[in-house]
Amino acid sequence: MSVLSSMTAPAPAAARAAPSRLERLKAAARKPGEASFFFWDSHFRNDACKVLPGEFFVHDEDILITTTLGSCIAACLWDREKRVGGMNHFLLPDGGGNGDVSGRYGSYAMELLIGEMVKRGATRSTMEAKVFGGGAVLGGMNSINVGERNTAFVMDYLRTERITVVSKDVMDIYPRKVCFLPASGKALVKRLASANADALAAQERAAAARAAPRAGGSIDLF
């Protein structure tokens, strides 16, 4: 009696695990001026995107968008119907002319942010804003009132666009860390100790030198 050996088919290769959200965010193509630094925030235990000076970021999931501000401004916009939100970070109100277009300047930074929100279905009539920054932390630049000018610009811009400012934490002498959740519109701000201001001020001076022209409505503290 012969014994037939059974032929065992080779086991299929292990299915490749689907990329995580953080991996997808890092791999996605970036638009001009769009933030590209993604990381895992261990404090909030969430995927996060850091918005650097001159950048913006818009999303509709419960990730964290974060930035650190001195005299700069971050406008956080949220559409209460589409539940999409975003943040920008600009250094100066206006550009230097001669076609100088950059997200470092408030006028263009706001266009970039609103434009991306609209592409995702948001409308100005259902947007609301939370505004942060404009602190007097640049000791050598206080004579030109950078923080005050930035604050006045963004408030006037939003008023002109008829986007309601539901909350703000601006001016004074503090640098700030801001976190924004674009799916819910929730914003958190932490006023940093003056010891943190020196490095931030140095960063803003360098960025401002490159940019300078040649002529629910609550804020949570954490």
- The strand line-up of the biggest sheet is 1-2-4-9-10-11
Q: H/E element string?
A: HEEEEEEHEHEEEHE
* Cα-to-Cα separation, first versus last residue: 80 Å
Structural category: alpha/beta
Q: What's the count of strands?
A: 11
- Overall mean pLDDT stands at 85
Shape: globular
**Contiguous uncertain segments of 5+ residues:** 211-215
How much helical structure, as a percent, in the residues?
A: 10-25%
Multimerization state: single chain
Number of helices in the DSSP assignment: 4
Main sheet? 6 strands, mixed
Q: Give the radius of gyration.
A: 22 Å
In percent terms, what proportion of residues is strand? 25-35%
Describe the structure.
This protein is of the alpha/beta class and 222 residues long. The protein has helices spanning 21-27, 106-119, 146-160, 197-211; strands at residues 37-41, 46-50, 56-59, 64-69, 73-79, 84-88, 127-133, 164-170, 176-181, 186-191, 220-221. α3 (146-160) links the parallel β7 (127-133) and β8.
SSE map:
Elements: H1 21-27, E1 37-41, E2 46-50, E3 56-59, E4 64-69, E5 73-79, E6 84-88, H2 106-119, E7 127-133, H3 146-160, E8 164-170, E9 176-181, E10 186-191, H4 197-211, E11 220-221
Parallel strand pairs: 2-4, 7-8, 10-11
Antiparallel strand pairs: 1-2, 3-6, 4-9, 5-6, 5-7, 9-10
